[in-house]
Amino acid sequence: MNAPLPAPARDGDFVRIVEVGPRDGLQNEKTLVATADKVELIDRLSRTGLLSIEATSFVSPKWVPQLADAAEVFAAIDRRPGTAYPVLVPNEKGYERAREVGVQEVAVFTAASEAFNQKNINAGIDESIERFRPVLERAAADGVKVRGYVSTVLGCPYQGAVPVADVVRVAKTLHALGCYEISLGDTIGVGTPHQASTMLKAVAGEVPLPALAVHFHDTYGQALANILACLEDGVRVVDSAVSGAGGCPYAKGASGNVASEDVVYLLHGLGMRTGVDLPALAETGRWLAGRLGRETGSRVGKALAAT
Ligand code: HMG
Ligand code: MG
């Protein structure tokens, strides 16, 4: 018999999953999902042990009608002590709407590509950052945590290639403004592992690695490989969406996020810890897919159902 291979160097490390399905997943659904189903989704996710669940988005309902019921959803969910429920806000108006229902963590979002930003939020990069400035100031005064997203870090549907220097500049600015964590988003899922690792290392030269998260859409099936490459570089926060739901309505070609079930399976297989109950998460993914009238987009979710 072969001698067992040594355990991976990072065996036992904790990885925080930021579950973005209720926001990134549902913002891209063609048909409106009932408010009660959104609430049930979040409550089910809370019971799986996830520590961070992005609940919804306080953006313009004209731009994203799918999440027009953000306030109702947030007010109705069962907020578990110790679990964070961040929400997306694009401006002060979004911040105020979120605070009215007791939000304690928000996420601001911009991109490394000017062209994508114009389509997504009708503003250039610098202009969008000027919009966040008062949000960050008010959040600091209110004791509200702020996460920051940088989209199109490995490619843009309108501009094509995105220089790594642009990603670094935007990530560094958001961190300097007070975002405690910067999520690096491959919005259209085009990146491959070496490219992801090169980008991450460049950003980590300017922003401390523990303040970085990765956010991969899976359009080209590269997301798990990209995550593995970034884990090897030391990243310990990964965004994903139950059932592989997701996509940005303003990013041509964007498909679902990497499925949370698949990420948790990978991490547990590496000997890493997540605190997440995988069978319960997979069950939630299949439940969501059923509500959306399709099969789960998680390979692990399907495999577990068949065993
Ligand atoms: P605008 O039209 O330029 O803004 O939109 P405006 O200030 O002129 O406002 C237009 C109307 O919206 C006004 O109403 C405002 O009051 C209202 P009207 O006077 O016409 O009746 N409004 C709002 N209403 C509610 N909540 C608000 C709000 N703000 C303005 N917060 C704006 C600019 C940013 C508002 C718009 O472009 C927008 O909401 N965009 C959001 C797009 C979006 O949500 N995209 C998906 C999320 S990003 C993503 O998925 C990527 C990510 O997953 C990472 C990755 O994958 O890379 C995070
Ligand atoms: Mg996304």
Automatic annotation (TrEMBL):
Protein name according to UniProt: Hydroxymethylglutaryl-CoA lyase
GO MF annotation terms: lyase activity
Protein family membership: Belongs to the HMG-CoA lyase family.
InterPro entries: Aldolase_TIM (IPR013785), HMGL (IPR043594), PYR_CT (IPR000891)
Gene3D superfamilies according to UniProt: Aldolase class I
Record keywords: Lyase, Metal-binding
PROSITE patterns: PYR_CT
Boundaries of every Pyruvate carboxyltransferase domain copy: 15-282
